[in-house]
Amino acid sequence: MKKYRVGIIGCGAIFMVHAYPLHMLENVEIKAVCDIKPQAREMAAQLFNCDAYEDYQEMLKRDDLDVVHILTPHYLHAPMVIDAANSGRHVLTEKPMAISVEEAKAEIEAGKRNNVTIGVISQNRYNSASVAIKEAIDNGSLGKVIGQRILLSWFKPASYYANSDWHGTWDREGGSLMIDQAIHVMDLARWFVNDEIETVQASYSNRNHPTIETEDTAEGIIKYKNGVQSVFFATNNFTYNSPVLVETHCENGMALMEFDRAQITYRNGRELNVINDPNDTLDEDAYQAFFNQPSSQVAIKTLTEWGVVGLPITWRTPRAYWGVTHIKQIRNFYQSLEKGVEPDITAEEAFKTQALIMAIYESGRTKQEIKLH
Predict the structure, then answer these.
(1) Regarding the domain delimited by 124-277+354-371, which CATH topology (the fold level of the hierarchy) does it fall under?
(2) Where in the chain is the domain with CATH 3.30.360.10?
(3) pLDDT tens-digit readout, 183-203
(4) What is the fold, at CATH topology level, of the domain defined by 4-123+281-347?
(5) Can you give the pTM of this predicted structure?
(6) Residue 54 and residue 234: Cα distance in Å, rounded?
(7) What is the phi-psi region of residue 257: left when phi exceeds 0, alpha when psi lies from -120 to 50, beta otherwise?
(8) Terminus-to-terminus CA distance in the chain, angstroms?
């Protein structure tokens, strides 16, 4: 069994969500980590007893890396993906893959040019609810999709943006609500319909966050080539992060997803209910053992001294809407590398959702319907 030697760029909020799955894979060895913040890279290096870098370009000069994970602010994703691909490494990057269509296309080309695999995280496709609905649509039991509605009502306090030098900016985050939060649910909804998007008509506004440049509310309609129409509404102005909702209306019934719960109701009266059980995805005892080992305790001490609180010491991560299914996508990525096949979510697949988000922004800016195909 080949051992994949891994470098991680970015050791911030989402680092542990990648660190634990990588720790659990027998065919993975973390060789290097990189972050511009000394405390972050020190923590990560202590956790895995590996080398630490401030400059990712220096890390890429190593000759013992096979894969690079990119967990940095949005505007850095594309240049880092391209540089890693140009250095001959496979890449797994957090979403979004880029903050523009042009950058996303450049990533795809870099992967092809260098004959490396580029994967993009979209972990909620692996939730039991998502899988159940996708299977019911794909196997034909629900019949043809007719229409769809998408609802996201979350909460982002002013402090969320005040404590960041890139959130809430067009040039670094690439937007806000749609490209950072709603992209998860928009990806699932598009994946369910599984057809080319023909047009997008949307609007966005900032209704309650005067200190940021970007949007906190958006709505619109997405029209697919097969005639399906999806309507969506999203906001960061609710009182808490309520479960996202995707209702897919089909010929033979209805599929309702509320985050990790699915209710599939058929016209003949049959009903299927699926509730994601985190224990099916992640072993609580093994997770606790990971955080109890000496290197983890040192890393946690470093983070605590740094002022980071709310560490993911149970499967209930600080941001529950991330879910626990990163572990499934990361495992799929490395299994695919070993088999020499494409992972479930390639750069080409992620580009479909990237193009949708960019079309929403373009439509909102120009107040025009945007044609994608």
Answers:
(1) Dihydrodipicolinate Reductase; domain 2 (3.30.360)
(2) 124-277+354-371
(3) 999 999 999 999 999 999 999
(4) Rossmann fold (3.40.50)
(5) 0.94
(6) 37
(7) beta
(8) 43
